[in-house]
Design brief:
This is CRISPR type III-associated protein domain-containing protein. The protein is an alpha+beta fold and 264 residues long. The protein has one domain (3-40, 64-255). The protein is 25% helix and 27% strand.
Length: 264
């Protein structure tokens, strides 16, 4: 039985409460995090639709492509600003923690279902196969981030673009609205009832490793495993606090987490 298990047997209301402020910088050429909606705009009114139909009925297929703009995949927006949904950021943190912590259950990673070679190279790993090793006790990642039967102790805001610009990048004939290198986002994580070591876990999940509190490069968004121009970001802490370093060091010492190099 590993030492940390006993620290996770009780939930109580005493603990750290606060806000972790984060900045995220795009360090690859582009970043596209989709909204799941894509737009095909009609760029010419179909005034002559009768004629088009008639042409078709006569057996000639009319060329309608010129009436439509190419497929364009938009980013998410809120009040006019480009955002990365908080749920996407939470997913990023959760996958890394599930892969890093021995015996954590595998809620996200198990369903990721990717067969990408780059993914396997990075994360096929020292980590053993998926297990549910916490029959009576809650796994540390679920205890922090919640699962279907357990409230999360942290909530992630959307990350709002504060600097940079977007470009439309053609990938295989479709256009992806993408934030260019150097673009920056701001967001926060609200936490409550955290043990210091869990604050350390959260920081680790964002790619912080040691007292320098410099985020490592992490992969996120579309094409992150297939096109090197896309999907690399780095988190930083605009207002680092003394307690972060200690929390992180406590976490690393206790959990001895696996680490991954996401540069490929
Ligand atoms: Zn879990």
């Amino acid at each position: 039985m590993q030492r940390f298990h006993t620290q996770y047997t009780e939930r109580n209301s005493i603990g750290l409460e606060g806000v972790l402020e984060l900045e995220m910088e795009v360090v690859s050429d582009y970043l596209h995090v989709g909204s799941g909606v894509y737009d095909v705009e009609i760029i010419k009114p179909l005034e002559n639709i009768d004629q088009l139909v008639e042409t078709a009925l006569k057996g000639t297929i009319p060329d309608v492509n010129k009436y439509f703009s190419p497929v364009t995949h938009e980013m998410n927006r809120y009040l006019g600003k480009v955002i990365i949904p908080g749920s996407t950021i939470k997913g990023l943190v959760r996958t890394r923690l599930e892969l890093s912590i021995r015996d954590a259950c595998f809620i996200v990673s198990r369903n990721s279902n990717t067969s990408s070679a780059a993914y396997k190279r990075i994360f096929r790993n020292p980590r053993p196969r998926p297990t549910d090793r916490f029959p009576q006790r809650v796994c540390p990642v679920c205890d922090l981030l919640g699962n279907s039967g357990l409230a999360s102790k942290v909530s992630f805001s959307d990350f709002i673009m504060t600097q940079g610009k977007v470009d439309y990048v053609n990938v295989n004939g479709q256009y992806y609205e993408s934030c260019v290198k150097g673009s920056r986002f701001r967001g926060k994580v609200l936490y409550r009832s955290l043990k210091p070591i869990e604050l350390g876990m959260l920081l680790y999940g964002f790619g912080f490793r040691d007292k320098k509190l410099e985020g490592k490069v992490m992969l996120i968004g579309r094409f992150k495993y297939s096109d090197r121009r896309f999907g690399r970001v780095r988190f930083s802490l605009p207002s680092p606090k003394q307690e972060y370093v200690k929390a992180l060091e406590d976490f690393v010492r206790t959990f001895k987490p696996f680490d991954y190099n996401e540069e490929w």
